Amino acid sequence: MEVKQFQAESKRLLEMMINSIYTQREIFLRELISNASDAIDKIYYKALTDDNLVFDKDNYFVKISVDKDNRTLIVSDTGIGMTPEELEANLGVIAKSGSLAFKKETELKDGHDIIGQFGVGFYSAFMVADTVKVISRALGSDKAYAWESQGADGYTITEATKDSVGTDIYMKIKENTEDDNYDEFLEQYRLRAIIKKYSDFIKYPIKMEMTSSRPKEDAEGEFEEYTEEQTLNSMVPIWRRNRNELTDQDYTNFYNEKRYGFDQPLKHIHISADGAVVYRSILYIPGSIPFDFYSKEYEKGLELYSNGVLIMEKSSDLLPDYFSFVKGMVDSEDLSLNISREMLQHDRQLKLIAKNIKNRIKSTLQTMLKDERDNYLKFYESFGRQLKFGVYNDYGANKEELQDLLMFYSSKEEKLVTLAEYVERMPEEQKYIYYATGPSIERIARLPQTELVADKGYEILYLTEDIDEFAIKIIAAYKEKEFRSVSGGDLGIEQETQDEATEQANEENKELFEQMSSLLANKVKSVRVSKRLRSHPVCLTAEGEVTIEMEKVLSQMPDNQNVQAEKVLEVNVNHSIFQALKKVHTEDQEKFELYTNLLYNQALLIEGLPIEDPVQFTNDMCKVMAE
Ligand SMILES: Nc1ncnc2c1ncn2[C@@H]1O[C@H](COP(=O)(O)OP(=O)(O)OP(=O)(O)O)[C@@H](O)[C@H]1O
């Protein structure tokens, strides 16, 4: 018998195939099942134009069989089969796709489902098998032929026997090696899992004999093994079904089955797009935070299917980082796959799909915010932080996109409000959107710095998360209203008389403040009269870009660069303590120093900043108490 050689290029290609195209061996089964499905499709398409052919769906299926003793895995189909010429042309020439040719010949227009296009998938069988034997009988022929090969050395084609039309592929599974376990491809449960993973939505049944055990009927406590043929795939994917046929429960079941999450999703979005790019997608907003969501380990992405066949488990290009919490899948016929189907050529279609998806997620969130506030609040509690990161990242490139989805706690409403709601309520004369930062709502509410703005009756946004102020700073202004920290410089609400009084007090006490400043040199940039304090004696504010809250956040970062806010100690000259300070300033220098340090440390404490020398601080307190 003549052993035919693969064409020279094919030989090298085959080696490449076996060793480097695919990263995961298990996909060989996906490729063979896709070929089987294509072969059945071809009969179906032929039947459309050939009156002598009747396509009865019940007669068409794929069957997986295992012969463990002979280490053989068999993939059979009742498809169109191959003539010896086709065996030669399709399996003897790598990168020749009979399926692609079929599509062209029959001039199938959009909507066809044939998967094969590159003419390489079949050879992935050599990743797991030493020998591959294909026995095929073509439609309309009563003869069968066998194509057999052990890889790069070539192949033979001989006559064979086969009772019915179709193709059986026998794979002699490789022996295990120290590093590689091939036995798994002879285990029924492992095979079932691979089929479920990649080929669940192949539209013809994929059958396999499954062995299970059950209690014996006549002998209590004893079990017996039994075998039955099962169909392993779900066939019709939920995303191809009509939205109005599906219940919330159907969507939740799919979410749980696909292991997108084990919780109850908060919202689902079902898209059937037939515009510039045709795709279907089901997206979910999870009901709770995945345990690793805010960690480096979390991988965003959507499952990507091409014609119902899984191509990628996590296609990260389909989701922007700020919507990384979204789970789900996309199926499209329009993707330009690369040869391994593991990657896509980064093409226009994918970008278009990603853009559409992003817009749909955004509009869904906006609608939720408008019509289902409680649901939105639940979402925001879990993933609001991610949106804020989204605003901040990439130098604010996405702030316009996201700012209307943000919420912050309002001092007046005592609940989360949007920026639009805040601005809507602003009295006409209010210049800025005010905010205050701190570790908790309660702590912020008691901050001395909020006094003036609160007295004025203005609403203050309380920022409690480390990312908040960074996000606000990058937004800078909302509907032309700038943001202003209550601890920042100009609050825009000083009245003229007050300004004059402050100037005067600064002037009168110039020497006192200068002395305080030099006592606190390296700690604060200056000491001055406060315009914002009402009942508290002192507070710290910051000048320049870095606020005190930002200094705190940055100091927690792993690459702490010791960024410092330019702090100002503000003193309330209307507070009784200031009179005491004035008195010691003229009478007792030692006490003046003591009071200055105490006041500075108090201001630090209120801000939640650490005191440099707590022992000294308590000693100073004792000194004052013991008087
Ligand atoms: N089970 C089968 N029944 C009938 N023809 C088959 C079968 N398996 C493979 N073929 C033929 O062999 C050709 C080559 O198959 P192969 O899997 O290498 O490539 P493909 O399916 O065309 O493309 P891709 O690399 O995209 O999967 C197919 O195009 C098809 O014509």
- Overall CATH architecture of the largest domain: 2-Layer Sandwich
Largest sheet: 8 strands, mixed
What portion of residues is helical? 25-40%
- Indicate the overall shape: elongated
- CATH H-level superfamily title of the largest domain: Histidine kinase-like ATPase, C-terminal domain
Q: What percent strand?
A: 15-25%
pLDDT under 50 segments (min length 5)?
Answer: none
> Whole-Å distance between the termini?
114 Å
Query: What's the tally of helices?
Result: 19
Taken together, the total number of domains comes to 4
Gyration radius, to the nearest Å? Answer: 36 Å
Family: Belongs to the heat shock protein 90 family.
Protein name: Chaperone protein HtpG
Region (C): 553-627
Keywords: ATP-binding, Chaperone, Cytoplasm, Nucleotide-binding, Stress response
Which tags fit this structure?
19 helices; elongated; 627 residues; Heat Shock Protein 90; 22 strands; 4 domains; 21% strand; 36% helix; Ribosomal Protein S5, domain 2; alpha+beta; six-stranded mixed beta sheet; eight-stranded mixed beta sheet; Rossmann fold; binds adenosine-5'-triphosphate
